[in-house]
Design brief:
The protein is of the alpha/beta class. Helices cover 25% and strands 28% of the residues. It contains eleven helices and 26 strands. The strands form seven sheets. Strands 1, 2, 5, 6, 7, 8 and 19 form a seven-stranded mixed sheet that branches. Strand 15 and strand 16 form a beta hairpin. Helix 1 runs parallel beside helix 7.
Length: 450
């Protein structure tokens, strides 16, 4: 079978690519080949534990792209041949293509420790069968150990608390959310979780998962034992690069598939997008393992727009991390560099802090406290990072700040922003938190100049 475009993978990257490609090249014949019939919304997986009534409520539909003209097939791609421009599947089918797009995603990292193969040890994959098995095991459990206090580990633990489980988090580093946030935000998140009854053990490593046939607990390197009916491993993900590696495509130093600025691999007619592709830091251009659905969707738009010719000249320095998470009902969000990473990267920084509320007056019933931390390059005054916490308004506020970072806005630019406000939906225009944090830096810089 011959297609103009073959897409391998049906997650956020694959669906996002097909949507944009159909809009850009409506006459092209496109097929998406994906392993599973039903694909889960990645960011929604933790919420299948308690908030959603069933795992099937988190399914990502392909009806939109199918109605727009794309074909969707359920099969497993076992081999790609970039020279012959062919794709081979487990069912014995062969597909010829003009352009091939790899959107194979990522796989959970499984540590090499004794006991990982015991019954009721789980990772958090984007696989509906495995997530349903996890939910079934949790329904018959009381004590759960979550290994890893990153975004997924924290969100899963929060959901387990809602399900009234006895939860213990084990984190090898010295604080929760250690990669995304500075210590003061990590400490706030830890307090929220501990106030809800979740036990947190930082600077702790699992030496062994204990049990006879099925899980009974974990043994820490300190010698402490923590009892558990279920253990959930959430220590990160690795790029699924098997097809690319076996086909001889270049693999980056992070383990992701190497691409150029337009998501083209070392074979010009083969693209890689999403978690399977190597990404580069927005500020330093160093390779990183940035794996977010929003980044996957961005990759997809870039690849689709430039599939046959370079229509959209890419001037972005790299991939910017913009993300948010909910901890005990409080939203934590970040974009760009945190203070620690900024200093480690060689930046001389100035910090602006604002503590405010997201409604005015603050006596309105759904008012939430808001804390914003802005990080600027001291020499240029350019915004390079932000962290914030508060109510649901934080989820969109971080996107605006992310836009400011991408635009290279300075402290002067932000302090002179024109904004719209309303008592029921925003902070006061007099103490709008992002502007107030920028004013904090503006005052510091002016004082130093004098």
């Amino acid at each position: 079978m011959k297609y103009d475009v073959v897409v391998v993978g049906g997650g956020a990257a694959g669906i996002g690519f097909v949507s944009t490609a159909l809009a850009t090249y409506p006459k092209k014949k496109i097929v998406m080949i994906k392993k599973e019939k039903d694909t889960l919304v990645p960011c929604g997986i933790p919420y299948t534990i308690s908030t959603l009534d069933k795992v099937e409520s988190d399914i990502m539909s392909t009806k939109g792209i199918e109605s727009a003209g794309a074909e969707v097939l359920n099969d497993i791609v076992t081999k790609i041949d970039p020279k012959a421009k062919k794709v081979f599947t487990a069912s014995g089918k062969e597909f010829e293509y003009d352009k091939l797009v790899l959107a194979t995603g990522s796989m959970p990292i499984v540590p090499k420790i004794p006991g990982v193969d015991l019954k009721n040890v789980f990772t958090v994959p984007k696989d509906i069968k495995q997530i349903k098995a996890l939910k079934e095991a949790l329904s018959n459990s009381k004590k759960v150990v979550v290994v890893g206090a990153g975004f997924i580990g924290m969100e899963v633990s929060d959901e387990l608390r809602r399900a009234k489980k006895d939860v213990t988090i084990i984190e090898a580093l010295d604080r929760v959310l250690p990669v995304a946030f500075d210590p003061e935000f990590s400490e706030e998140a830890r307090k929220i979780m501990e106030d809800e009854g979740i036990k947190i053990k930082t600077s702790s490593k699992v030496k062994e998962i204990l049990g006879h046939g099925e899980v009974e607990g974990v043994l820490l390197e300190s010698g402490e034992r923590v009892d558990a009916d279920v253990v959930i491993l959430s220590i990160g993900y690795r790029a699924e690069n098997t097809l690319a590696k076996e086909a001889g495509l270049s693999i980056g130093i992070s383990g992701g598939i190497w691409t150029d600025e337009y998501m083209r691999t070392s074979e010009m007619d083969v693209f890689a997008i999403g978690d399977c592709a190597e990404h580069k830091d927005f500020f330093t251009r160093r390779a990183n393992r940035l794996m977010l659905a929003s980044v996957a969707a961005f990759d997809a738009r870039i690849a689709a727009a430039n599939l046959y010719n370079l229509k959209l000249i890419r001037q972005v320095k790299g991939d910017l991390n913009i993300f948010s998470t909910s901890v005990g009902g409080v939203i934590f969000a970040a974009s760009g560099l945190d203070e620690t990473d900024a200093k480690n990267s060689g930046f001389d920084v100035e910090i602006g802090i604002a503590n405010s509320v997201d409604r005015h007056p603050a006596t309105l019933p759904d008012t939430s406290k808001v804390k914003v931390k802005l990080i600027f390059s001291k020499s240029s005054g350019v915004l390079i990072g932000c962290q914030m916490m508060g109510g649901k308004s934080i989820g969109e506020m971080i996107n605006i700040v992310g836009t400011a970072i991408q635009g290279g806005m300075t402290v002067a630019d932000i302090t002179s922003l024109q904004i719209g406000t309303h008592p029921l939906v925003t902070a006061s225009p007099v103490v709008y938190p992002v502007i107030t944090a920028a004013l904090d830096v503006y005052a510091k810089l002016n004082c130093k100049e004098k």
